[in-house]
Specification:
mainly alpha; about 140 residues
Length: about 140
Amino acid sequence: MEALPAPAPVTGLSPSEEHTWAMIAQLSILANLFTGFLGPVIALIIYLVYKERSRYVAYQSLQAFIFQLIWWIGAGALAGIAWAVSGLLAIVLVGCCLMPFALFISLIPVAALVYGVVAAVECSQGRDFRYWLIGDWVRSTYEG
């Protein structure tokens, strides 16, 4: 019986490829503009594909995934709830006072989009980008 050939070894990525894939993971937040939710899916797929080949790409894509779940999906849902509550309370005039808060909450996903693009630019230049609050947690979880 013939022996099966050994699987090809997993090779690492060149620094240029690492920067490119990390940038793509960060820019996956732009997919949310067109689909509403596929950005985290793209970042997760990049993490799963490259986690064994590059710690840098794995770290950046995992950060992008968690960041998008919290600040895009979570804040988007919170904005929807805020507008629904202020709309319902507008019947009794209290909701009109809440509309500026709903508008402010609606701007959180936009700020997250800008922050994600900044992260992509940093990654494309080979810098180790860390999201505020999320980066240290992801690093301790990933390395621990």
